[in-house]
UniProtKB/TrEMBL annotation:
Protein name: tRNA N(3)-methylcytidine methyltransferase
Similarity field: Belongs to the methyltransferase superfamily. METL family.
EC category name: transferase
PANTHER family tied to this protein: METHYLTRANSFERASE-RELATED, TRNA N(3)-METHYLCYTIDINE METHYLTRANSFERASE
Annotated EC: 2.1.1.-
Species of provenance: Cardamine amara subsp. amara
Amino acid sequence: MEKKMEAGEYHSKDFDWEFVKNIVENDPSLSHHLHHNPQHDSHKYQQHSQPWQDFHSRHSSGKFFKERRYLLKEFPELVSCEENSKLLEVGCGNGSTVIPILRGSKNITVYACDCSSEALVRTKENIDRSIATVDNFHSFCCDFSSSQFPNWLACNHCRDNFMGKHSGGSKGVDIKYKCSLNEHCIGGVDFVTLVFTLSAVPKERMPRAIKECFAVLKPGGLLLFRDYGLYDMTMLRFEPEKCIGFREYVRSDGTLSYFFCLDTVRRLFTDAGFIEVELENCCVKAVNRRKGKIMYRVWVHGKFQKAF
């Protein structure tokens, strides 16, 4: 059984990233992870939302992902935020990110989206099971890598009017709604959480997806980022035929996974207009005592701000 880690351990530095880099780059059996093969680019995989729809249908128990309780320690801004703060959780999956946020911060209203309507059903079920009734959660279906976020997310006036007319918002709201103030929109959300979501987006769509997040943030708002890092244990498990691009892989179920280095993350977000606040590798050593294996996990932790 994998060693149980307390929330605080996730932000610790169990090892230096250069340590695992040296292991990988000196192991001939892992050489297929190190080089860019242009042949993969000529057969670029085009992902749609259906693989994730199927994924959440298969894992309908909602137990595939564990609740991410460590997030409130990684991102304390979510706890210390002002009253009536608003958060957009992008790629909510089964609610493993939004549940600890809803439980830990009473000042936040959460708007959550996913490309899979099945995921939204799982999220609602898990919230009802974990927290019971909440009035500060609303969800909607949207693939932010190929579609715009609804205009009401960026406008306080329209959002208040619209959500008042859709009291069943947790069942999903109409993303086609147009803002009544048009170019005079004011407001937006205070936070965007992008947690293990961007890695599931085709690499060529990432810049557009990040610009969508930038567009709905208030000036001074924060985007909170966490995702798979380069040479994470999960990356090293992929076989050569699963590689569809440089550091980009497709799982057997059709879903994608990309593994980030710090420079790639920095470039993606600063090119979209963000200011870097924090950016680092989070390196955690986990121990599977039953199998006697040490597992080196690498995640990228980042905070990016929209200028005032």
